[in-house]
Amino acid sequence: MRLPLVFPLLALLAGTSLAAAEPVRIAVAANLLPVMERIAAQYQQQGGNPVQVIGGSSGAFFEQIRRGAPFDLFYSADAERPEQLAAAGTGAAVRTYACGRLALWTPRTAPRLDALPAGKIALAQPATAPYGKAAQQALQRSGQWPSLQARLVYGQDIGQAFQFVDSGHAPGGFVALSQLTAAGIPPTQYSLVDASLYEPLVQKRVLLARGERQANAEAFLAFFDAQRDTLQSAGYALPGEADCATE
Questions:
Q1: 3-state SS, one letter per residue, for 161-187
Q2: Strands of 50-200, DSSP E
Q3: Is 89 in a helix, a strand, or coil?
Q4: Which among 32, 45, 51, 123 would be 20 to 30 A from 224, CA to CA?
Q5: How many domains does the chain have?
């Protein structure tokens, strides 16, 4: 009479095994994507659970998460969106993980904000991408916004803005220093935009997973937070440094 109990037990074990095998789903702002892919690979090589990394614009991810997209973690390029998700009860454990740096990349001419090359100038969409918003602020505060608007080409995120310049579609563009570092672009081709020209790019992450998925997501968070050297070498400032406020 005990035989039927075997089947529920097997089903429970199978379900537990399946849950453990499911990847940690991470929404990652495009500026962080190359670095996150490296960290995720190291995590899995060292025995961590599978990780699925999806890159895109912070604004687009924010809207997807609000509509119920099944992400476990969200690494944004700003502070506001993770904080809003936590305030709405959608996420928790908000923390600054890095501060970004905006760069002007002009592969064929001297990288000068006051002498941009002729032709299109690329930047990410300011409405959804924090680095695009920072680029817009820099152009506005430097007085160049009115004369340049007709020449601007917008990427859906900072990754596409990078592609516009990399492909030659735009002779110059505003991208993240981390992207240039990851791609091995020589420093002679770019310059850092004066940080006083844009609001600080304080980047925060938020834990979205609940229930059985939360432990796996928290394990990855702990591993990521220990990768300070990797983030620094990629061009980010870190919490606790003078140019990276945590509030």
A1: HHHHHHCCCCCEEEEEHHHHHHHCCCH
A2: 51-56, 73-75, 92-100, 102-105, 121-124, 152-155, 172-176, 190-192
A3: coil
A4: 123
A5: 2
Q: What's 206's domain CATH number?
A: 3.40.190.10
Stated as kind and residue range, the H or E segment containing 141 is helix 130-141
Looking at the whole model, is its pTM more than 0.85?
yes
Give the structural domain span for 8.
Answer: 3-99+202-233
Cβ atoms 118, 147 nearer than 8 A: no
Each residue's pLDDT tens digit, 85-128: 999 999 999 999 999 999 999 999 999 999 999 999 999 999 99
Same domain, 206 and 95: yes
How far apart, in Å, do the first and last CA atoms of the chain sit? 62
What residues pair up with 105 in beta bridges, in sequence order? Answer: 173, 190
pLDDT digits 0-9 by tens, 122-160: 999 999 999 999 999 999 999 999 999 999 999 999 999
User: Do 144 and 101 meet the contact criterion of CB atoms below 8 Å apart?
Assistant: no
The reply to whether 218 and 185 lie within a common domain is: no
Quick check: is 240 in a domain?
A: no
